[in-house]
């Protein structure tokens, strides 16, 4: 994956990029572009960011039979600081972090290995604000080091990770729901 295509997330965060073992694994499995990783996330049920042509079939995006990336690995790939900066990719990564059945310990370990702990912490803190009753977010935050929130222009605002309503059965009120894959397909 060529990070020279544009400014990377690492550059925006003021840090250096590294050689990503996780992106090397993704490339070995046939996910050699950020778009193919995004397609895999869509195939795993992330329909909020649907493909304009139609739904994505996971069998069509998996190039090695019997081997793929876990939902946790997809999330961290999408949040990789090595890739060119993309607000949508960061939002998709935030949604994949919250996939049903994800292991906070695995996510924290992968975030450390891939040097994106700051990004994962930021997203987890937003997830906790939206879903304080969800033990996933609290558990993930406990496993990550503390970070100061990034400048407002560096990462997407909380409203970019949620679906919001303005009118409900109770009248006018704002209800936020974290965007996540619809199906709990995990590998």
Mind explaining what this structure looks like?
The chain is mainly alpha-helical and 187 residues long. The protein has one domain (3-178). 42% of the residues lie in helices and 8% in strands. Strands 1-2 form a two-stranded antiparallel ribbon. A hairpin with a 2-residue loop joins strand 1 (162-168) and strand 2 (171-178). Helix 8 runs antiparallel to helix 9. The chain is globular and about 50 Å long. The mean pLDDT is 85.
* Chain-averaged pLDDT: 85
Helical stretch count? 9
Number of domains: 1
> Largest beta sheet: what is the strand line-up?
1-2
Helix content: 40-55%
Distance between the termini: 23 Å
Oligomer: single chain
Number of strand segments = 2
Q: How would the global form be characterised?
A: globular
- In this structure, how is the largest beta sheet organized? 2 strands, antiparallel
Based on CA atoms alone, the radius of gyration comes out at: 16 Å
Residue runs with pLDDT of under 50 for 5 or more positions = none
Annotate the secondary structure layout.
Layout: H1 9-13, H2 21-28, H3 34-43, H4 58-61, H5 71-78, H6 87-97, H7 104-113, H8 117-130, H9 135-143, E1 162-168, E2 171-178
Antiparallel strand pairs: 1-2
Task: For the structure shown, list the relevant keywords.
9 helices; two-stranded antiparallel sheet; 2 strands; 187 residues; mainly alpha
